[in-house]
Amino acid sequence: MVVTLNELDVADVSGMIAAAVAVVQIFIPLALPLILLGVLRDEHAGATTTSAVSWSVIGRFLHGSRWPTLLAADSASIRGVPWHVVFITRMKTILALLTAIAAVVTPLGLYQAIIEDDDWTENVSFHYIRDPSEFGWGTPPRVNLPWSRICGAFLPVECPNSFSNVTNFFNETGEYIQVSNYNSHVPQYVIDAFQSGLEHMEDSVSSIFDIQSRSYSWQLINDHPGAAVPDNGQTYPVDDFRMISSNILADDYLAIEGLVIDMKNGGIGFRNHSAPPQTPYGSTWSEDLLFIEPESQCVDTNLTLDFSLPRFTSEATSSISHLVLTDRGGFANLNLSYPNYTNTNTQRDPQLWDRAYKGAWLNNVISMAYLNVTNPRNTSDPDSEPFTYLNSHVGKQFPLMNENGIFSAPLTISVDGLFLSSSYGSYLDTSWVFSTPEISNFSFPNTTSYKPLYENPFNITASNFTSASIACAGKWSGDNANLDNFVANCGMLYGAPIRTDNKSSSIVFEPGSNWSMPLYSCIMTAKATIKRVTFRFNGTDDLSAIKVTEINHKVYPDEESMPLWGVERSDKNLSDVRLLWGLISSPDQGNISLHTLRQESLYLPGFDPTLGFSTTGGYQNLPGSEFYIRGIGSVFSMKYDSNLPDYTGKMNLAMYHRWQELSKAANTASKILDLIWTDVSSNAVVGTRGLHGARLQGYSSSSMSEPSSNTPAVKFMQRRVRYHWEYAVPALIVLILTAVIAFVTLLFAIIGRANMTRLRQYLNKTSQGRILTTHLYGQKGGTVAQEPHTLRPRSTRRWVENVGKNPVTVAEGNNDFLVIDGPQASQPRPLLQENLQKGPAAAHDQEK
Length: 848
What we know:
Layout: H1 10-39, E1 48-51, H2 52-63, H3 67-70, H4 83-105, E2 110-122, E3 127-128, H5 134-138, E4 165-171, E5 174-181, H6 188-193, E6 211-213, E7 215-219, E8 236-240, E9 253-256, E10 259-262, E11 268-270, E12 274-275, E13 283-308, E14 321-327, H7 352-370, E15 397-399, E16 419-421, H8 462-473, E17 489-494, E18 498-499, E19 514-537, E20 546-553, E21 564-568, E22 581-583, E23 594-598, E24 601-603, H9 627-636, H10 653-662, H11 666-682, E25 685-687, E26 714-723, H12 729-750, H13 756-765, H14 768-777, E27 783-787, E28 790-793, H15 796-804, E29 807-812, E30 818-821, H16 832-838, H17 840-847
């Protein structure tokens, strides 16, 4: 891998400089001795003459270099040398090598980091920051927009805690409704009640009345004769929906205009964005935010739709061929016991998995009856028993295409996408019910008449599968709107198909390839909770500089410190009213009757989750009570909803591939629903409460509030030098050895075995010049008597003046003998030249 100069950091450059210095430190001690040898001149036959003191200097310089070790000279020998001398002398080389390595490696661990400065924490004023992204451009400015509330699914119904006057009466001709006044306004005391709990929260926490529709419009007056006209014919605001952008593949925490969105797990937090003052290196802080998050559970039906792609597309009548329903144990291994779950105290134990399992079980049982795999109970015969036979086994396939290659069920199966349906059993054609096979022919336009694939002996229809949806959700439109009946929708997730022939990647659609689509029973709901969100602000003074670093569930020390949630108490049906909910200060809220609950989160009330977001506009302006319901409806109708982006993956191969990975198991498949809900809902609503004095929308006022005086503690970032300690290992070894050496040195100094006097003696004893002059001149060449019977080394100055300047000739004789000569030697010697010619033996004889 080639590293360019632009990729180097300060640590790398420091290491390179240290390496260059180490090379120079090695090269110069090796080169200078060679230069010295070039300066010294041999007189003849390898003999060199210079002063005695020069021999000391030359010896120190040559033996102090690395050449003795490299050339295995005498001074580097270990034979005949005591082990402690060898050990100490070798430590010098080892430490020099380690020091060179440490000098190069140690700087590589240096780096600069921007960190939180715990010593610089302040409570500062926050200011609004705009969103420069498409969400900022696509969100209309907030105006004086009062709340509006309309109740009644088909006929006008008086909303809870409203000033409307709606009367129901009966006579012999039927039921009638008389509307003397229909007031869409939400009373201020109601708004105050559902914002009262904020006084126990941080200033950043929103209420249901801090949630506004991202897009809005105004309702036209209904001038139809006899129609109930709200607000005496005045126009009133309604929510609206326009898709702005999609973040479905972000897999991150994002801050957009009015929201914090969790595209890792699903969920949106409400915040009108603001930030502390800018600093050179940024800042970080944490806030409590109101979150609404989806919660989904999926159960594997152990059924799959398997098919292949046509080998010749020009001859294909469908995009897929050989479509079959395969029993992976959903029929053959069915648990014959009817599943039940308790529907009491649903807020604390919603039993979502049990609900989804019940939907899967009913889907399989009804499908088995349709396919005549087994028999249901005959309700007209009290003695009849279900499941008296079983015509299936694991791996058995049930064809779903006729001989013309036509799939007659309501679904449109494709190889390049997943989809969801709020209807169970949509892979079967339940629109036909036949009493006898003779009348079962049916003609499609431009096709040949054919018989249906299955006789459907028990007359199974779509209404039978609808019962599975109701049993899973646990409620119906006529049930009472209350705390326990939280919003939920059930249906089937048809996972992204995966290749089963293992011949190539699962995103290559080869003709003739085989594919399998898993079928899951899923339930989806939504809940409100408080989460702790950590922000980092650095860069330009707009929302692009805010990074959401963490989103965590808020931790409470005990139950008493948990939020107190309130939900309107009502005698209305679920289909007629969207209940208000929120954080309250106490169960007693004056004129408002409430269901209350103290816990971490609240499963939100509601019904009609099949109704998704629509660009045709809503009917009221109370998004906090219904956007999450429409979000669930959009998820389960995404296959057919033209108001939304393509979430099937058909138009986005990256999305399709991600859905494939999540579709492999039921526990990960539920995440698909949560992410789609989050992406759609983030385009539908916006939060209006912020620490900078955000708009607190109410009935009679839309002015800006005072900026928060209770802002979170902000930690300002500072640049600091940091170090990767693994690069310090060589330096730590050198440091430890240095400490050991220092300790031993100090020890010998204390006991008197290592001092300057003794060191000077050993330096003189091992001096090359003194050894030579002692050899030539005897005692006067090395020591001098100062007192009787006392000899001590001459000082360097006196030794140089006496004999150190005398020239000494050193040559190499035969058999590695050294020949030494000098003027005024203590014993007469023959000429050097003669000794060199005759050899060491002759010289020895002459000395005798």
